Amino acid sequence: MTTQAFAPPTTKSQALRSYDVADFPALNGLEEEWRFTPLKRLRGLATADTSAATGRGVTVEHGDLPAGVSVRFLEPTDDAVLSVLVPFDRISALAHGGAARVALVEVAPEAVLAEPAVVRLLGASPEELSLARTQVRVGRFAEATVVLSQEGSVTLADNVEVSVEEGAKLTLVTVADWAPDAVQAQHLKIRLAQNARVTHVQVTVGGDLVRQFTSVEYTGRGGEAELYGLYFADAGQHLEHRQLVDHTVPDCRSYVGYRGALQGDAAHTVWVGDVLIRATATGTDTYEINRNLVLSDGARADSVPNLEIETGEVAGAGHASATGRFDDEQLFYLMARGIPEAEARKLVVRGFFAELINKIPVPELRERLGDTIESRLAKAGS
């Protein structure tokens, strides 16, 4: 009789990390990290090497910037380029090694921005594979709101690396409002120093396939990360969001709250939330929750919350997930009070998203997002 040996499962802390694309095997869709992603729709991003891609398909633009913030473009080998993200998947390594330049958004130490700094990443060509790197650095004790808006047509692998220094506070809003033919695979990494705080609001409404992976690392006590997400998938769209909050030092806090709506045939959303509390991270306080609202038949939402805890000395740790259909009782209640059905549906969905929309400290962006939601609901009802 023979006994078959099984390798122990790989935890998040054991995941391979490397800057070299060649260190990662070709993706086949059977990997846990990629099992929900339709690889064929990635237009070659899953198999490309750095020689097959360019940065010509995207441009970075910004208007007038508030005092205390600057944007400059650096060579990847420049000493000013931060080393925040060590890729732990093939496409992130591709973006790191192949991007021709790095866009650096820098907030000066102790600066308090009077208004948001808005930077736009514009796609111009879905026909070629594009690679991009963006870095956001917030100096010690600074306070800033930064908006990264992504628009246009593109096939893109990109990394966004965020460093929030000691005592600084950053509100980061990322908006993926791509054209209907766009494809994006992104890794966004946030590194927090002692007593640093970040509020990240991730909005995803555009594109054919958008896969965004957000990870958080703490380097000092007292770090706080609040990650919020709002996504709305229409017919045929695949919108996928993953988070990894890696608690490595004591007395830090995290909160993850994502909400999504989906409607139309083959609309598919994926949310996977991972929180890792290492043995050294005593006093951690963390919670994650995902809610999905299914507005029509033919749509599918996958939601997977995970906690990996290596110490019993935590202040709190929990997670929750809920996916449900449109509440007909709420609709009936509104219609019984004379509100037409189409308007009642808009009110219910707006109420579902209201808490997250109000997290965005930019009135124009809140209004634009509300208009996008209403236009999609109107299209579905026409």
Q: What would you note in describing this structure?
A:
Helix content is 14%, strand content 44%. The chain contains 4 helices and 16 strands. The protein has helices at residues 90-98, 328-335, 341-357, 363-381; strands spanning 58-62, 69-74, 102-107, 117-138, 143-164, 169-178, 183-192, 197-204, 209-218, 224-233, 238-247, 253-262, 268-277, 285-294, 300-309, 316-325. It has a 16-stranded mixed sheet that branches.
Shape: globular
- Main beta sheet: 16 strands, mixed
Total E-strand runs: 16
Q: How many DSSP helices?
A: 4
- Share of helix, binned: 10-25%
Which structural class should the secondary elements be placed in? mainly beta
The Rg value, from CA coordinates, equals 21 Å
Keywords:
382 residues, mainly beta, globular
Helices and strands, with pairings:
Blueprint: E1 58-62, E2 69-74, H1 90-98, E3 102-107, E4 117-138, E5 143-164, E6 169-178, E7 183-192, E8 197-204, E9 209-218, E10 224-233, E11 238-247, E12 253-262, E13 268-277, E14 285-294, E15 300-309, E16 316-325, H2 328-335, H3 341-357, H4 363-381
Parallel strand pairs: 3-4, 4-5, 5-6, 5-7, 6-8, 7-9, 8-10, 9-11, 10-12, 11-13, 12-14, 13-15, 14-16
Antiparallel strand pairs: 1-4, 2-3
Helix pairs in contact: 2-3, 3-4
Task: Please summarize what this structure is.
The chain is mainly β. The chain contains 4 helices and 16 strands.
